[in-house]
Amino acid sequence: MMRMDLTDFLRSRAVDGFIPWAAQRKAAAAFDLTEREVEETALNLNLLPLRYRRNQQTISTAQQLRLFSSRVAIIGCGGLGGYVLEILARLGIGTLKAVDPDVFEEHNLNRQILCTFSSLGFPKVEAAARRLEEINPVVRLLPVQKKLDRINGREILRDMDVVVDGLDSVPSRMILADLCRELSLPLVHGSIGGWYGQITTQLAGDDTVRKIYGATDGQQGVEQTLGNPSFSPAAIAALQAAEVCKILLKEGTLLRNRILFVNLLDMEMVKNEL
């Protein structure tokens, strides 16, 4: 009897167009492949991994393949960045680059989803790799335990499709925004402070972040004085992740040349032109 090929194997184990994780693992073992390679084949066959079933009414299988093939860099893996990483991994973004020089400290426990008592003292990017392995093993996580600067930034951002700002100071944001502008990379900016947050999207050729913060590179972010409760980074990170998804899928209306202010204390959102 002729040995079944991977295509036939996957089709024979699909249920209503969905491939269970157990079948992906069996295919990987049977054909000496990684689960990631199996998933790519399945998506190209228009078979959707079962864990994305609840995406399907919003994101088609073809679009899921596009997300799988995408590369997103998250700069800063603390409050905002940690939540963005988790949301994008659950969404099925195929390659995520996590960039952060720091280790977790006890005061991070109140708001940073990647921070646990067992991760205190460990690099944030290592915690990100462990977390993503648990929730979506086919996502390729590229950890970079460095502070992005004007010297290393071009290499760090090379080959990325979208960049997410999870930073906490104006100077760092300015550097990131300038690099993205030079490299013609879309940048989804977010910042938080207390009950408040803001997001905007800077596309190729735009100078959006500098319009927001002006020419001053010496200011700390407002979060340094207001602090942040646990819900603020979760709320703004979710909005950032939605912008990333829209950029990659080329759908919807982006916050280009606009800024969305979020007031969680009074449950108000205000969108202004820039």
Key attributes of the depicted protein:
274 residues, Rossmann fold, alpha/beta, 2 domains, single chain, 11 helices
Please report which band the strand proportion falls in: under 5%, 5-15%, 15-25%, 25-35%, 35-45% or over 45%. 15-25%
Helix count, per DSSP? 11
Distance between the termini: 67 Å
The order of strands across the largest sheet is 5-4-3-6-7-8-9-10
Proportion of residues in helical segments: 40-55%
Radius of gyration: 20 Å
Q: pLDDT below 50 for ≥5 consecutive residues: which ranges? A: none
CATH-assigned fold name of the largest domain: Rossmann fold
Q: Main sheet?
A: 8 strands, mixed
Mean pLDDT: 94
CATH top level label of the largest domain = Alpha Beta
CATH superfamily of the largest domain: NAD(P)-binding Rossmann-like Domain
- How many domains? 2
Characterize the overall form: globular
Protein name: Molybdopterin or thiamine biosynthesis adenylyltransferase
Keywords: Nucleotidyltransferase, Transferase
GO molecular function: nucleotidyltransferase activity; tRNA threonylcarbamoyladenosine dehydratase; ubiquitin-like modifier activating enzyme activity
Pfam family, one: ThiF
